[in-house]
Each structure stands twice: as C-alpha cells, then as structure tokens.
Specification:
By secondary structure, the chain is an all-alpha fold. The chain is about 70% helix and about 0% strand. It has two domains: about 1-50, Arc Repressor Mutant, subunit A; about 55-200, Tetracycline Repressor, domain 2 (Orthogonal Bundle), CATH 1.10.357.10.
Length: about 200
C-alpha cells in the first residue's frame, strides 16, 4: 500500500470512529457531516471524497461494528449447544448484549433503513447476509434433527425472527436508549417460543 492509500485508509478510519461516537452520543439526525469532520480532524471535503452521504457513513459504521460482532460469533457458534430454540435464543442474546453498548447507534441504523432515498452504497438493516445465513444454518440443522418441520420456508422464518429482534428495540427507544440487554433478550426468548410452536413437527 502506497503512502496516499495509507492516508486515505487513515482518514476513513478517523471518520468512521468520529461518526460512530456522534451518532451514538447526539443522534443520527442531529449529526452533520461538518461535525463528523471536526471530530475526526479532517476537512469536510475529505469526508465526501470517501463517502457519498451521511447515510453511507452510517452504513459503513455498522458494517465495521458487525465485523467485530461476527468475529465473536466465529468463536461461539461452533460450541453452541442445545435445541434449535436454545441456540437461536443464544444468538439473539449475544446480539443484544453487543448492540446495547451503543443502542442509540443501532436505533439510528434501523430508522435510516426506512429512508426511500438511500443510495446504492447504503446497506439497510435486515440485509445482513451473515446473520441471515447463521439463522438459516441453525434452522436447517433443526430440520435434520427433526425439531423443525421440513416443509417450512426457512427464509421466511428468518425474516420473522429478525423482525421480532428489531421490534424489541422499541423498548430501548422508549427507555431513552438505556435498557438492559437481559430485558430485551427475555422478550426475544418469549417471541421465539411462540414462533417455535409453528415450526414443531406435527
């Protein structure tokens, strides 16, 4: 990597760190590109040279955070034990424990996902292929073990689980972003138990 490329990479990292902190501390809507540039110690032009918009900055911030989360999952998934329901509850509990460290940031990510003017560089909530594949794999193993009906659309089940997961963040929003991960996990456990009634073999 040449000097110029190293400088661009360093600027990108500074911008992402500054944006992550501002989105979580003051909120996505309140954060401006100028504020991000000032926090990062770079020019506004440097931000726009790297990212097309604030929404794209948020998208890359979340992708960067998810890389950290899934590095943890790479270590955890091989040793997860229990029923299909148990394993799904564990996966979502780990997600809540991770995201509630910066819950306002995740709420901003969900809200921004509903913006109809998002550019091509923006990856909205729900389009994360790693989470989807992880859930499909757990459900597929459940099918093999006879715990999940083989005639079900696993992708539809995954969409239902992810919708419940995101819905529980309303509790965090109502609490001003200050809600223990354990409470959200407990709610998700109950929702998974209800959904599981529909996938049990008959």
């Amino acid at each position: 990597m040449g000097v110029r490329d190293e400088q661009k990479a360093a600027t990108r990292e500074k911008v992402l760190v500054a944006a992550r902190d501002l989105f979580n501390d003051v909120g996505y809507e309140e954060t401006t590109i100028r504020a991000i540039a000032e926090r990062a110690g770079v020019s506004v032009g440097s931000v726009f040279t790297t990212f097309a918009s604030k929404a794209e900055v948020l998208s890359h911030v979340m992708t960067h955070r998810l890389d950290e989360l899934y590095a943890e999952f790479d270590r955890v998934i091989p040793v997860l034990r229990g029923s299909t329901t148990d394993r799904l509850c564990s996966i979502f509990a780990i997600h809540y424990a991770f995201e509630t460290r910066r819950v306002k940031l995740f709420l901003a990510h969900i809200a921004a996902s509903y913006n109809p003017s998002n550019e091509a560089g923006v990856t909205p909530y729900g389009r994360n292929p790693r989470l989807s594949q992880m859930l499909v794999d757990v459900l597929a193993e459940g099918v093999r073990k006879g715990e999940v009906r083989a005639d079900l659309d696993l992708n539809l089940l995954v969409d239902t689980l992810k919708a419940a997961y995101a819905w529980n963040y309303r509790m965090a929003a109502a609490a001003g972003g200050d809600l223990p991960a354990a409470e959200m996990s407990a709610a998700m456990d109950r929702q998974i138990a209800v959904i599981a009634e529909g996938w049990k073999p008959r």
